[in-house]
């Protein structure tokens, strides 16, 4: 075992507890419940901001996982707060599923049913069940699984549709955000169904869940991963015709390790062996965005011949995990070097004064204080998971029975 790995583990635990989670523990909304919906890029709290399902679900996952790994009671309290708020305020008690946003007082605001958000709530609930043994959390995660399969799974053409109205009918605007194409199927939503289904399978060995998780791995192998470039294609119509020509380097490296993790969770050695060459190929394709300073740039629009060279917080976090995974599972020393190189970039450029990380830094090193430090999308999930994944993986390498 590398002598520096235990130092790296200590750095990850310290970053998680002293910088990331300490920041989010100060975002507790004691007046209205749950957590505040927005802290801007300058660290200013906006208590009247709407609250998002994705933020709260990611809070639930992060604090549940942190409690499972580190055992600190304040993390369990925060996880329970997140779960209770989701089930009380975001859950549509008439139609099932969770709303996209509620206002600062917890009243439904944007009531669309984005499948991406349903997936993240499963991710959070299943992790809470994993950490605590909560039957309530597991039952609600199962309920959401059945809802997704009932309304969003395309039984004719395979895959999952993007979004629906509150009562599960077709909706005109299916986009996750303004920057996304308005298409019926996307890489991003499929990735974040694969991820929670794998986590749910850890605590619920259900036959239908196993079947759908295997199917998702197959969809990534045959539909989403471009056979020529090994990058993920991002947008599709319902017939799986590719729409647009984008490369998202962060999703490539994130997806490489999540696909591999899903196969490992299934416990099928033949599947792991068969998918491993693709996992390594996707990770290698992502290195087209890797820079000499260790960072990973955001994306390229090939149709417009434009590359966004900003270094986004989540892309860097996933770069660290993805390349470390290559070291852990395939013995790649280059993978370890790349993971450590990106972590060094993060330490020098992204960690914000006052806690958390900046949204991004530009190629010239200037920090982005325009975008939020906490908001509908900015959560402790990517960077918190980076810390937790490396802490667990290094412990596993030191003692194979630890993970």
Average pLDDT level: 97
Give me the number of helical elements.
12
Strand order of the largest sheet: 7-8-9
Shape: globular
Output the keywords.
403 residues; mainly alpha; two-stranded antiparallel ribbon; globular
What's the topology here?
Blueprint: H1 5-25, E1 51-52, H2 53-70, H3 73-90, E2 101-102, E3 113-114, H4 115-132, H5 135-151, E4 163-164, E5 185-186, H6 187-203, H7 207-224, E6 235-236, E7 246-248, H8 249-266, H9 269-286, E8 299-301, E9 306-308, E10 311-312, H10 313-330, H11 333-349, E11 360-361, H12 381-398
Antiparallel strand pairs: 1-2, 3-4, 5-6, 7-8, 8-9, 10-11
Helix pairs in contact: 1-12, 2-3, 2-4, 2-12, 3-4, 4-5, 4-6, 6-7, 6-8, 7-8, 8-9, 8-10, 10-11, 10-12
Describe what you observe in this structure.
There is one protein chain. The chain has 403 residues and is mainly alpha-helical. It has 12 helices and 11 strands. The protein has helices at 5-25, 53-70, 73-90, 115-132, 135-151, 187-203, 207-224, 249-266, 269-286, 313-330, 333-349, 381-398, and strands at residues 51-52, 101-102, 113-114, 163-164, 185-186, 235-236, 246-248, 299-301, 306-308, 311-312, 360-361. The protein has a 3-stranded antiparallel sheet with strand order 7-8-9. A two-stranded antiparallel sheet has the order 1-2. The chain has a two-stranded antiparallel sheet with strand order 3-4. The chain is globular, with a radius of gyration of 20 Å. The mean pLDDT is 97.
């Amino acid at each position: 075992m590398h002598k520096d790995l235990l130092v790296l583990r200590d750095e990850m635990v310290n970053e998680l507890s002293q910088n990331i989670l300490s920041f989010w523990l100060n975002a507790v909304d004691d007046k209205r419940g749950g957590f505040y919906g927005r802290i801007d890029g300058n660290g200013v709290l906006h208590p009247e901001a709407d609250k998002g399902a994705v933020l709260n679900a990611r809070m639930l996952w992060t604090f549940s996982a942190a409690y499972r790994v580190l055992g600190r009671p304040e993390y369990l309290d925060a996880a329970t707060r997140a779960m209770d708020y989701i089930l009380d305020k975001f859950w549509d008690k008439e139609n099932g599923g969770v709303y996209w946003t509620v206002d600062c007082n917890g009243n439904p605001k944007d009531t669309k049913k984005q499948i991406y958000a349903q997936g993240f709530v499963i991710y959070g609930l299943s992790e809470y069940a994993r950490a605590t043994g909560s039957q309530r959390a597991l039952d609600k995660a199962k309920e959401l699984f059945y809802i997704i399969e009932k309304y969003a799974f395309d039984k004719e053409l395979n895959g999952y549709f993007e979004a629906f109205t509150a009562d599960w009918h077709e909706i005109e605007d299916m986009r996750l955000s303004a920057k996304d194409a308005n298409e019926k199927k996307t890489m991003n939503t499929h990735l974040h169904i694969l991820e929670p289904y794998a986590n749910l399978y850890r605590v619920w060995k259900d036959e239908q869940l196993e079947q759908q998780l295997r199917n998702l791995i197959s969809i990534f192998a045959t539909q989403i991963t471009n056979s020529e470039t090994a990058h993920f294609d991002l947008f599709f119509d319902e017939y799986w015709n590719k729409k647009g020509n984008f490369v998202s380097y962060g999703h490539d490296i994130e997806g490489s390790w999540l696909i591999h993790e899903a196969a490992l969770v299934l416990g099928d050695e033949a599947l792991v062996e068969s998918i491993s060459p693709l996992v390594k190929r996707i990770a290698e394709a992502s290195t087209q965005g890797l820079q000499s300073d260790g960072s990973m740039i955001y994306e390229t629009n090939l149709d417009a011949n434009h590359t966004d060279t900003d270094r986004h917080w989540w892309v860097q976090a996933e770069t660290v995990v993805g390349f470390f995974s290559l070291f852990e599972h395939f013995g790649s020393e280059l993978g370890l070097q790349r993971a450590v190189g990106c972590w060094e970039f993060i330490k020098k450029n992204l960690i914000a004064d006052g806690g958390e990380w900046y949204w991004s830094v530009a190629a010239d090193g200037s920090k982005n204080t325009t975008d939020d430090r906490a908001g509908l999308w900015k959560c402790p999930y990517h960077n918190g998971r980076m810390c937790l994944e490396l802490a667990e993986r290094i412990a596993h390498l030191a003692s194979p029975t630890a993970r």
